[in-house]
Amino acid sequence: MKQGSISTMHRSTYEAISAMCEKAREYSLSKVDVVLPAKSVNILEQPIGWSAVHPGYRQAEVRMPDGGDVKVKFDKIAQDQLASFCAPGAVAYLRHCAEEGRFDLIADNLNAWLSHSPKLRMLRMTKTDHSGYDYVVRSFHSEQYARIDNELVLDYARPVLENYPALEVKSLNLGDNDMSMKFTTPRVRGEVTVGDIVESGIYARNNEVGKAPLEFSQYLGRLVCLNGMVSAFPLERIHRRHKGRKLGIGILPQFHELYGHTRTEDGLAAYGIESEMIQGLRLQLKRAINSALDSDVFRSQLEKLSKSARQETALSRFSRADFKDHNAFPALRVLEKDFGALADYVKTEIHQNFAADGDHTKWGFANAITKVANEAKAYSTATELESLGGKVVALNDYRWKAYQEAEYMAEAA
Fold first, then answer.
1. Cα–Cα distance for residue pair 144/122, rounded to 1 Å
2. CA dist 403 to 183, 303, 323, Å?
3. Minimal CA–CA distance to 215: which of 232, 236, 239?
4. What span, in angstroms and rounded, lies between the C-alpha atoms of 338 and 330?
5. Beta pairing partners, 215
6. Which tens digit of pLDDT belongs to each residue from 97-125?
7. pTM of the predicted structure, to 2 decimals
8. In this structure, are residues 185 and 293 in contact, taking their beta carbons and an 8 Å threshold?
9. For the segment 182-237, what is each residue's pLDDT rounded down to a tens digit?
10. Pairing between strand 31-37 and 250-252?
11. Where are the alpha helices (DSSP H) in 293-322?
12. Which of 374, 378, 411 has the alpha carbon at shortest distance from 389?
């Protein structure tokens, strides 16, 4: 499986998680979060980084709660969230304006919407040494956005994970906004087919800017090729949205500023998180790990995995040579219909893996997908492909039949 930004080489699980906690704390030192009226944001006409091939980034002047003005740059995620807040369909409209070079229309429209809004917004920012602006706005939310940040999740999850010494860390990744952790254990393993051994484990992910919820679910590690797969079988899992209580106007304290106090109800309230949420998080995490490491539960899942490797699930319509012609593998068309579009190179590699590996069953198709994850450039892409493989294995017989019966598309005359 793809390795992340935190090295796990020659490190115990405790050492690897400790390194991740330290890195998360380093990232947190540059964070600034503020709640203010939407009308406090004034979009400037001139974009940052505009070119003939890039629409650039919006910049703005923001009136802070203390009355001072700062200059900010909105990154892509924050730009889209800002546009979505202002009006339905504004994301596409503003992108079109940028492509046409009409930055005056972008500023005029956004400022008209913002100036008439009575709502409060939370700006999640990071400090910058750039000479042109003071902060980068990484996301734009309502005042009810719950800051379930990576350092908070790690602080509360770490003691729970350390109580399970059987877990072995396989991959850790920490980005500016994202976090992923993948563990398996040799104590819970079995054969899908003769010699094809999988181990059960746990997968955790979080995103600080609203692109994904906090999630803990089962993870499967395949020993024969070191592929990983995020299980989609029904199981005890955590899936928590970033929504909390309303916060008032002001600059919000960061987790590292409240560390030590965040273990009390008052400290958590100051951070904007209810103590019941944290207590529930720990209990859910324990249940998720216990479920993933339960031998009886795993045995039941192993039966489903073995069923997916039976010959009656095999796909027969695919080319063994023309991998770049995606019509030459009709099942890929059904895959995209079910789960969304894939990049052309991903489809090519899935097709190539499937033809070369010799296992043409549903299990083989899923592993052709997760094998692409090992070489993916972006860690997020790798994890998405591991999740996609898990979804394929979990397809019921009726839905899988559509893959088996998918026809080649007739060529246009």
1. 8
2. 31, 21, 18
3. 239
4. 13
5. 205, 239
6. 988 889 999 999 999 999 999 999 999 99
7. 0.87
8. yes
9. 999 999 999 999 999 999 999 999 999 988 888 888 899 998 877 888 888 766 66
10. antiparallel
11. 295-308
12. 374
